């Protein structure tokens, strides 16, 4: 015989004054036992409250936005007498069936007490939702925030409902999945092998510095997203070196040391003025080249904590001595960790000089959003063929990495040839 039953909020653990974020039924609806009635949301979990009975909804006692606790009246139901499986095993308590919870796994301390209805766990075999996901609005919103299409997530909750944990596992799987064999047009890389190095000998684990972590993430992005090509060349700096040595004698009293880098800064700006597409960046749409009318050059500085790239401003407006002075100051600041972030912003082009250390050439990584970077290696004396004979000349190796989306190979070759000409004859700096 039909009777009117009160359906109450069941035991929801320690939660009190929990918000109703969705009401799934209305007066007149015929519902089955275990059909969801409302969704509750705390700051830690979302839970659907199923009906303990089948019947017809006679009166709604709450609406979205109301706050409820255990025992709050949800609705009045004209019951047909059919109790849910969970309820049937209990005395006919006038409460809703146990809530089906999508709790945040990281908060076990505040998770509701164990309930009779199966609760989603990661060990439950996921049930396919067949593209039509059953999930509470909170879970749908959570999935949306992570860019997950809820229909792709297999639900492990009751009747295949998608839980928060299902969404988290889905994202985790997508991020860690080895994609080598997956095909398609995206970036396809194998996952790094996880190796127990200690199996092969003694090891020591040292955390990366903050600078290395930040620089590393940027370098990685630039390396994988920019099609790099490196153009190699050599500049005859024999005369430049003679001049530099003269200057160094002159400025020794003022404690100013002029290294080849000061000349490189000036010569690079001359080349940038002649090849404006190197003094540019792609805009965020990737469809326009932003040509810069100023000449701020970044210089890679090796510090004990990692690589930093301070930017020298308006290099076109400064002389060699001034630049040498500024170079000394910024590299000291970088090494003493006194370089403000603003001193590393606004660069148009970068120079990475390993000339003081050695090496014959290398392939520098572009400092995005710049479109090119000049690598400089150690100058060495080489026999060069001139006027039918070999002469000893000091040759400076140049390695220009450029963004091939913006710069053609021919332009890069012209750029380094021009740069080499300027360095070979520093009178050209004045042109
Ligand atoms: N060929 C031959 N000698 C060179 C040279 C070159 N290309 N460049 C510099 N030298 C000489 C200098 O003249 C100086 O010689 P003296 O002591 O006899 O005068 C000596 O090498 C040391 O120079 P330096 O390295 O102190 O000064 P710098 O102006 O050339 O460079 C700086 C300054 C800050 C760029 C440098 O110290 C540095 O940190 N370089 C490393 C940059 C780096 O790590 N790049 C890799 C980044 S990954 O792309």
Keywords:
single chain; 431 residues; alpha+beta; OB fold (Dihydrolipoamide Acetyltransferase, E2P); Dihydrolipoamide Transferase; 5-stranded antiparallel sheet; 24% helix; elongated; binds oxidized coenzyme A
Tell me briefly what this model is.
This protein has 431 residues and is α+β, with helices and mostly antiparallel strands. It has helices at 85-88, 137-145, 164-176, 210-225, 238-251, 260-274, 320-335, 409-424; strands at residues 3-8, 18-23, 30-31, 36-41, 45-50, 53-60, 67-68, 73-83, 100-103, 228-236, 280-282, 289-291, 297-299, 301-303, 306-308, 311-312, 349-353, 372-376, 380-386, 389-403. Mean pLDDT is 85; it is low at 85-95 and 100-131.
Radius of gyration equals: 34 Å
CATH class of the largest domain: Alpha Beta
Instruction: Identify the bound ligands.
Output: oxidized coenzyme A
Q: Classify the helix fraction into a percent range.
A: 10-25%
Helix count equals 8
Strand content: 25-35%
CATH fold name of the largest domain: Chloramphenicol Acetyltransferase
Please write the string of helix (H) and strand (E) elements.
Answer: EEEEEEEEHEHHHEHHEEEEEEHEEEEH
End-to-end gap: 103 Å
Overall 3D form? elongated
Number of domains: 3
């Amino acid at each position: 015989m039909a009777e009117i039953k009160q359906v109450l909020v069941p035991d929801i653990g320690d939660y009190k004054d929990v918000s109703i974020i969705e009401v799934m039924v209305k007066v007149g609806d015929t519902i089955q036992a275990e059909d969801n009635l409302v969704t509750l949301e705390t700051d830690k979990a979302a839970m659907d409250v199923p009906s303990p009975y089948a019947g017809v909804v006679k009166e709604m006692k709450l609406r979205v936005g109301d706050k409820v606790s255990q025992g709050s009246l949800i609705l009045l139901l004209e019951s047909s007498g059919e109790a849910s499986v969970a309820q049937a095993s209990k005395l006919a308590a006038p409460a809703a069936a146990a809530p089906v919870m999508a709790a945040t796994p990281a908060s076990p301390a505040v998770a509701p007490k164990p309930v009779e209805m199966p609760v989603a766990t990661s060990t439950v075999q996921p049930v396919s939702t067949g593209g039509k996901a059953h999930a509470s609005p909170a879970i749908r919103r959570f999935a949306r925030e992570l860019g997950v299409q809820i229909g792709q997530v297999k639900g492990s909750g009751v009747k295949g409902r998608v839980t928060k944990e299902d969404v988290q596992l889905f994202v985790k799987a997508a991020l860690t999945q080895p994609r080598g064999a997956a095909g398609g047009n995206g970036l396809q890389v194998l996952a790094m092998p996880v190796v127990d190095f200690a199996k092969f000998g003694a090891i020591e684990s040292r955390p990366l510095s903050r600078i290395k972590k930040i620089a590393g993430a940027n370098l990685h992005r630039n390396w994988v997203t920019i099609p790099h090509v490196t153009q190699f060349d050599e500049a005859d700096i024999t005369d430049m070196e003679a001049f530099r040595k003269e200057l160094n004698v002159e400025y020794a009293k003022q404690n100013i040391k002029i290294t080849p880098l000061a000349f490189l800064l000036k010569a690079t700006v001359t080349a940038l003025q002649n090849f404006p597409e190197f003094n540019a960046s792609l805009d965020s749409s990737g469809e326009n080249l932003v040509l810069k009318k100023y000449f701020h050059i970044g210089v890679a500085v090796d510090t004990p904590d990692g690589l930093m790239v301070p930017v020298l401003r308006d290099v076109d407006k400064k002389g060699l001595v001034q630049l040498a002075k500024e170079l000394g100051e910024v590299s000291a600041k970088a090494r003493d960790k006194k370089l403000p972030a603003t001193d590393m912003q606004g660069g148009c082009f970068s120079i990475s000089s390993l000339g003081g250390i050695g090496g014959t050439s290398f392939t520098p990584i572009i400092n995005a959003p710049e479109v090119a970077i000049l690598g400089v290696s150690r100058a060495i004396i080489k026999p060069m063929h001139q006027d039918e004979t070999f002469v000893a000349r000091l040759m400076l190796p140049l390695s220009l990495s450029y963004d091939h989306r913006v710069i053609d190979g021919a332009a890069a070759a012209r750029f380094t040839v021009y740069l080499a000409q300027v360095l070979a004859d520093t009178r050209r700096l004045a042109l």
